[in-house]
Design brief:
The protein has seven helices and ten strands. It has a six-stranded mixed sheet with strand order 1-3-5-6-7-10. A two-stranded parallel sheet has the order 2-4. It folds into two domains: about 110 residues; about 70 residues, Winged helix-like DNA-binding domain superfamily/Winged helix DNA-binding domain (Arc Repressor Mutant, subunit A), CATH 1.10.10. It is of the alpha/beta class. The chain is globular and about 50 Å long.
């Protein structure tokens, strides 16, 4: 699903109070989207985005999107101003979230992960992108650069899933993880 942010919320996305109202409206707009869906939040035609607005909308939105019944994977698209990416990065650092930010046509195939990832999470995200749909046990068998146990892989996979960077599907008794987009780069 694509959410045109300017048409939905206006061209000036600023302030904590409007952000709280927009969070509620965003949840309403996405309330009928099937679980495990990617949601493209298109900032095309937006003229202003502030950190206070980003924090008021996206901190609670990622918590809401990660609920087991909702399970959505947001991708922020077409941020026109480099300073807006900085606002998202600042909020990501404060809240320990990670945002997928993409430019160009939607649906995006490539994005940059903006926010904190430790070295183990970066290795795990790289492995999921390289191997596609995998389990922790499969990563233990397939990952050659170093020996990492399935339990460690599973913990990292869960963390990346909680950050909404990879998707999860239950197949029998196993949790199978796959990337939200085919290509994900890291900020910094």
């Amino acid at each position: 699903m694509i959410v045109p942010m300017a048409a939905t919320f206006g061209k000036h996305l600023q302030g904590k109070l409007p952000g709280k109202k927009h969070f509620a409206k965003l949840c309403e707009v996405l309330s009928n989207v099937p679980p495990n869906s990617i949601v493209f939040l298109d900032f095309k035609d937006v003229e202003i985005v502030t950190g206070s607005w980003v924090n008021a909308v996206f901190a609670p939105f990622f918590h809401w999107a990660g609920d087991d019944q909702i399970d959505l994977f947001p991708v922020i698209c077409n941020l026109a101003d480099k300073h807006w990416v900085d606002e998202f990065a600042l909020v990501a650092d404060w809240t320990h979230k990670c945002f997928l930010v993409a430019d160009g046509p939607i649906p995006a195939k490539r994005a940059k992960a903006i926010g904190p990832l430790d070295p183990g999470q970066k290795i795990t995200l790289d492995a999921v992108i390289e191997f596609g749909a995998v389990t922790g046990a499969e990563l233990e068998r397939q990952w050659k650069p170093e020996a990492i146990r399935a339990t460690a892989w599973n913990n990292r996979l869960r963390d990346l899933y909680d950050k909404r960077l990879i998707r999860r599907e239950r197949r029998g008794r196993e949790q199978v993880y796959s990337p939200v987009l085919k290509e994900i780069d890291f900020d910094g």
